[in-house]
Amino acid sequence: MILNKEQITSHNQSNFDKHDQSFDFLANNLTNKGHDVENILKKVGDFQVAIPSWALGAGGTRFGRFSFHGEPGTLEQKIEDVGLIHALTKSAGAISLHIPWDVPEDAEKIKALTKSLDLKFDAMNSNTFQDQPDQKHSYKFGSLCSTDDKSREQAIQHNIDVIRLGEKLGSKSLTVWLADGSSFPGQNNFQTVLKNTQDSLQQIYKTLPEDWKLFIEYKPYEPNFYSTVIQDWGTSFMLANECGPKAYTLVDLGHHLPNTNIEQIVATLMMKGKLGGFHFNDSKYGDDDLTVGSIKPYSLFLIFNELVYGMENNPQNPYPAWMIDASHNIKDPLEDLMQSLEAIRSSYAKALLVDQKALREAQKNHDVTLCQEILQEAYLTDVRPLLERARVSNGGALNPLDTYRHLEVRKKLVDERGKHTMATGL
Amino acid sequence: MILNKEQITSHNQSNFDKHDQSFDFLANNLTNKGHDVENILKKVGDFQVAIPSWALGAGGTRFGRFSFHGEPGTLEQKIEDVGLIHALTKSAGAISLHIPWDVPEDAEKIKALTKSLDLKFDAMNSNTFQDQPDQKHSYKFGSLCSTDDKSREQAIQHNIDVIRLGEKLGSKSLTVWLADGSSFPGQNNFQTVLKNTQDSLQQIYKTLPEDWKLFIEYKPYEPNFYSTVIQDWGTSFMLANECGPKAYTLVDLGHHLPNTNIEQIVATLMMKGKLGGFHFNDSKYGDDDLTVGSIKPYSLFLIFNELVYGMENNPQNPYPAWMIDASHNIKDPLEDLMQSLEAIRSSYAKALLVDQKALREAQKNHDVTLCQEILQEAYLTDVRPLLERARVSNGGALNPLDTYRHLEVRKKLVDERGKHTMATGL
Amino acid sequence: MILNKEQITSHNQSNFDKHDQSFDFLANNLTNKGHDVENILKKVGDFQVAIPSWALGAGGTRFGRFSFHGEPGTLEQKIEDVGLIHALTKSAGAISLHIPWDVPEDAEKIKALTKSLDLKFDAMNSNTFQDQPDQKHSYKFGSLCSTDDKSREQAIQHNIDVIRLGEKLGSKSLTVWLADGSSFPGQNNFQTVLKNTQDSLQQIYKTLPEDWKLFIEYKPYEPNFYSTVIQDWGTSFMLANECGPKAYTLVDLGHHLPNTNIEQIVATLMMKGKLGGFHFNDSKYGDDDLTVGSIKPYSLFLIFNELVYGMENNPQNPYPAWMIDASHNIKDPLEDLMQSLEAIRSSYAKALLVDQKALREAQKNHDVTLCQEILQEAYLTDVRPLLERARVSNGGALNPLDTYRHLEVRKKLVDERGKHTMATGL
Amino acid sequence: MILNKEQITSHNQSNFDKHDQSFDFLANNLTNKGHDVENILKKVGDFQVAIPSWALGAGGTRFGRFSFHGEPGTLEQKIEDVGLIHALTKSAGAISLHIPWDVPEDAEKIKALTKSLDLKFDAMNSNTFQDQPDQKHSYKFGSLCSTDDKSREQAIQHNIDVIRLGEKLGSKSLTVWLADGSSFPGQNNFQTVLKNTQDSLQQIYKTLPEDWKLFIEYKPYEPNFYSTVIQDWGTSFMLANECGPKAYTLVDLGHHLPNTNIEQIVATLMMKGKLGGFHFNDSKYGDDDLTVGSIKPYSLFLIFNELVYGMENNPQNPYPAWMIDASHNIKDPLEDLMQSLEAIRSSYAKALLVDQKALREAQKNHDVTLCQEILQEAYLTDVRPLLERARVSNGGALNPLDTYRHLEVRKKLVDERGKHTMATGL
Fold this sequence. Notes:
- 4 copies of one chain form a homotetramer.
- In chain A, 61% of the residues are buried.
- Chain A contains 16 helices and 11 strands.
- By secondary structure, chain A is α/β, with parallel strands linked by helices.
- In chain A, 48% of the residues lie in helices and 9% in strands.
- Chains in contact: A-B, A-C, A-D, B-C, B-D, C-D.
- Chains A, B, C, D: It comes from [Muricauda] lutisoli.
- Chains A, B, C, D: Keywords: Isomerase, Manganese, Metal-binding.
């Protein structure tokens, strides 16, 4: 199913007057405070976040999976789903594939489909945290870290294969996320598995095309774990340094111990030129993969405050890759993703409103009260009219969720695909 | 130092036009969405939060204390400080005393001063977590929980004395917070100290005047602790039930283990008619006593969402006592308190904007996407014009912080009191 | 497969001399210190822990399941597996069934098999956290808490059915564990779902036979959750009180927020006569369901210290139900369970060695150094010879793991059952 | 007060027979299992842990300080206290000074006293986390990270002064611990303060004598904090690398977020040759500074397992500096320190008992059950007779605590020093 522009713009009409009033009032206020509204609009409009192919169906839990109706059953349908979100939001201009779930039968056809929907291929994702049915050597006891040469070589080769496939599609990066670790003290020799992981990553790195990047994720724990090999940003950063200049750390919001100051990690990595990418989600207790901004929106704003600062002041750091990495168990995945996208853009827009000059001055004077006021002045501003305007200017929906429901997209997907389809992957 | 109304209103003039525009725009929007703006204004304007007497000076840390200039050195000066905040914000209409730090020499004079500043006496606070210079029996190994009869009796009597003093001043409640607990496994017999605490509270409860309430705080830990006797709301709730209908649980935001769902505790207590009071602050790691709303403003909003629901739907629960319980180490305490007050009122106002009827309907339909939209619609609204209007209507400052600085209040306090005064207490 | 006693005792012979020496040395030491070794041996020997039927196969994770060879495919085989563990350890004298996974075709035959292996039926477990293939109404949005009457009634009836089945088998208790909760703020009205849960539990309670108990588990979170309905012991305790005297709280070690003082919860519940049962496991980060004692053995000892105290001093509390609730992903489940059993018995034995009289005295004198010494004196004692003796006296193996491997039990199970069997359930 | 050897050895006599029996039994067992008991005895006997000068008096909390009787009032008395502990335990052969609390009036005299007690000077500790009475520029808003040049230069110079003083005394390292950070979002620019800290450390590093080391501590938070500049090992490691080969990371057990896998950090740092030192303590909730081994002794064992492995397999890592960094509020500090020392030595001895060869083999075979058995075999061994023998062989007390009480050391200290002395420093 493909949404055409007319459907969207015609639905926009009904709410346009109200939007205009709100936007004018806000723009006027911001201009009076010295903001360059056009510039902010452009930045927000340009901000694109990748959707991973596995996020388009219902996720599973330990106990089962309540699948959603009309889930995409093929790679083509997954791309179409991202196309739908992008048509409505104009902020989901990329898809991130997961191999082996998304191996295309015909790469050229897939490229053409993707291009027709105005989508790019974001980072490729390898998978060595599961055994595939046809797999020779098991990852039960680790993959890139494995002390079994054959499992380890197979995992390295899989990553190289993913790079090769990504080249065909036009992707420019590989994200490596490992569930390698141990469930019990003594199970692994920490130094051995870290060394193996470093060697494996170096071998993968060697095959990386000149214009590619390698993103190394970290994560402190998985359920039923005692340790993970790449437990924190420090380990990822160390490994990226051992690989070389094209290797970077990837930060996933949910992959931290309780109370971690994530925005400080972001600042440190950008200062060192090593923040490669970002996975968005939210959480209350652990790695809950909830809708972005649904639990701790102020934290997200503080992180964007560092990202905005880094993007403006750290030429040593490349423009990061952005992706949503949430799980959708009880909401329509497409609705959920649109809520996430809006939360991301909202935080970005608010961070752009921070008066950096005044903040620098207040910091210099140790006027802590004022520092807080400056951040909150930006955060408390209702930027929704701005997000709407940026979207509409790019041809998207004033209110994507509302339009999605009005156009009965899910119903049409079920009609097309059937009720009990099930997305491959997670 | 006492602020007169003219100083405040004259400073308001300069910003009134801008405020009017913003308020009208917001009020118009809210009215169109079906909100009763007058009613919301009244509720927000009526909302009063107590300031504890110990919050007016700089707090200490383990390593020392950077004292602030012009701190109040006497009870009268503390009351004056609260009066200043109240004159500016019209939302700090009560002071909460801490005994023995605030024993008045002349109760009637203190009552008159307090009344003249339009302040009430909120809950009285006893102190059995420190040894006072003249104290006969030490609380080193506990107070109300103590296995030493003399320490325990002294602690009970102290609480009774605090009630008697409170009666003279016109307070209507006693808050009991204990640092009773242990540093090491085995140090205490858990059952013995819990039983002792229950007995002690019951003895104090017996002397409570008919129209008083007893608030029992809980807290999972202190630095250098292995256990606290009243470690969680369950223990406090159990003790309150053992005392009787005038005993309630008091919730302090900072007194929880990492990731606790505090709003759910609030809902449960209100349903059971046992939420007596609330201490506001914020925290990143532990019981950090930071400015309200400075770290997790959305959590505060979710808590207020439950409070608003409970105040409207739980006649079994009395109107709760509200107090700020933060520590001020690097900001001017008065500025810090004004920021806290604004964050509280902001959360309250936003919670009042939640469309309860639509939420109930969405919950019934399991429309989880919509439930989230409804909460966020309220939260994302910029309610600052509303807070301003409610304040100005009551005679306060449009922008309290700005007015405070414009009127050079701190400078005048230093002139009056001297630079190196030091608040008694913490 | 059934182990006969001769196989076990014959393998014991080879290590008996060494055991005798160690035991005599330890028993002599303990006797000199005033311990009644015979009494301790009897208590340890009598201590029986239930094995849940779902623990006998490999557990799953979010990403897949590495199944183990020779897993039991039927209820009979599960019972046989527990029989094997019990024959070796003489401490796993009960099985805890999970419905609908374990509905017997012929209850009498199952009872006879169980009896022949010297096993009892521990608590019955209902399952309303998953949708079964044939189920009319979904639990996607809750079961006992559901706002959909039909889902709720179905969940209540299921629990009643489980009780009826349990009566046929000779079980005496029902454990209710719920995954009821929400993923997002606003999704549930906290008060409504708590009231519904209370009503549902009361309806189930009403059908409970006179000599049965109802165990109510609590748990702060599940992955992808924002709240659970029964989030802590306080909520469970409150619900148990609302049900009546046969309702109790059940404590699962893994179901707590970081840093919770669990031993204090145990002490409080026993003092109030409301500790119904205990689920053993261990964890590093969250609810990891690792082998008991593999991560925090001293915590387990401190918990047993409270359990031993409560069993001796709290006649108001019934003898608790004991169960292992761990997940087995990378070890042979039977080996894993034997390690858990040994850790439990070790902690129990050490807790029995605590010199309660000396501890009471040291507590009274606030001799905190000595309190710690007394606990550690017990904990540091190597009680393994004592555990061996208690086991051998009851006809078990000196070293169960060693015997299990020597007798090639797993190999024989694979021969009997085939390599790729898969246990029903989790 | 100085203990002479006769007092100690004469008290040993009474318990010698019992010790001999226990030791012989244990040594025999260990020898049979293939251990080289003499070698283990030597290693344990040689293991020396520094006592910091601030640990000899009662510590403070937020609310006050219950001081202990007979606290050392001068540097000489602090050294004497360490001498007492060392005489009894033969494992506290060094003192770690804190400047400016411990500036000696006569360095040579102090050196002579220290030598006479068989003590060395461990790492020097600078203090820029407090303002001293005579200090020109405040550290209220940071020291080495400060944006105020004068505060920063003063802090750098202080560290250089401490190095110079350390050279006079014969110390060989400087430990830098900072409370630099912020209480509120926006207060600091993360990149600026990190850069400043790096610059400052580099300036200090430049003045380091050739044979000295610089230890950089990290810590995620302090009470009332939102961020610390050196929040984790990754940041410390990065800074150490920026300084040079003589700069190392220092790990303090209490300075971690909840659930951190510290043993893995230890392994990583040793593999990279960057583990400089270790501060021992224990905690239940945060940075509680409790007696070593009083809360999580198995974690300590796992850490020592990595330390032992690293000391044997990582020639790239220097021998680490060991120090106790606990706080003593309710126990006699000397007793508390002796308990800590014993817990450290116990963990070290048990780690030495791990059968590394068998463990390597089991890891290779993914025999996870056996890996756990091997670690626990070592951990469950009661090594107390071994610790006694190592101590007695070096001239120490069989049972230091018992001897300390028998000889009424504290009473004599009170007689000498008076009841209400108070240690300088914390």
